[in-house]
Amino acid sequence: MPASKTRLDAPPRAVLFDLDGTLADTAEDLAAPVNAMRAERGLEPMAIATLRPFASMGARGLIWRAFGVTREEPEFGALRDEFLARYEQAMCVHTRVFPGTMAVLDEFERRGILWGVVSNKYERYVRPILTQLGLIERSVCAVGGDTTEFSKPHPAPLLLGAKIAGVAATSCVYVGDDLRDVEAGRAARMATVAVTYGFSGDAAPPSVWGADFLIDAPGELLELLPD
Hints:
Layout: E1 14-17, E2 24-25, H1 27-40, H2 48-51, H3 58-67, H4 76-89, E3 96-97, H5 101-110, E4 114-118, H6 123-132, E5 142-143, H7 156-165, E6 172-176, H8 179-187, E7 191-195, E8 213-215, H9 220-223
Helix pairs in contact: 1-3, 1-4
C-alpha cells in the first residue's frame, strides 16, 4: 500500500525519529566491527554497500550477513557480545546526521515542534551518539530498545517518548526506515513517515509498508507540515 497522504491534517506537537538510517547514517561505524571480526578470522572485508541494508537490524542483521549465523544458533551469543564490545569503543567515528537533517531540526524548533529519538539500539549507545552529534540537549527524549520492557514494533517505546515529551501520542509523528517503525507508529496511533534514504533492510520496499507518508530526503518532512 503506498503512502496515503500528502500533508498532515494539523501541525504535530512532536516528531520522533528512529536513529539508525533515519536521523543518522551510522552504517560505516556499524560495519567496522564485523569487518574487524572477519579480518581476525582470515576473511576478506565486506563492502559497506553490502552491509548497509542490514545495519538497521543491528548486531542480529550484521552478524547474519557477515557470518551467516542467526540468533537461534549457539555461536550467535559470542559473536554478538564481541560485536557490541567493538562497537562501543568506536560508535561515532564516521556517524553523521543525514544531509538536510539539521535544517529540519532547526525549523521544527523555530516552529515550537518538539523532536526526539526512539530507537531499538540500546539506550547506553543512543545517548553517547546523540551527545557526540551535538544533539542530546536538543532532543526531548532518547529512548532505546531496552528503555522499556518491549522494543519496536511494540508501541511501548514510542508511547514513552510521547510521555517524556509531555504530548499525546496522537499529536506525534514517527519517522523510520524499517517496517517495524511503521508498525510501532500505527500501534501507538501516531502518524507514520517511512524514509527511502535509510537502510531499509526488509525484502518489501518502504512504499508498501503502509505508512501515512513516504519521503526521499529529510527536507521533505517540512513539506508535510500544513500551511
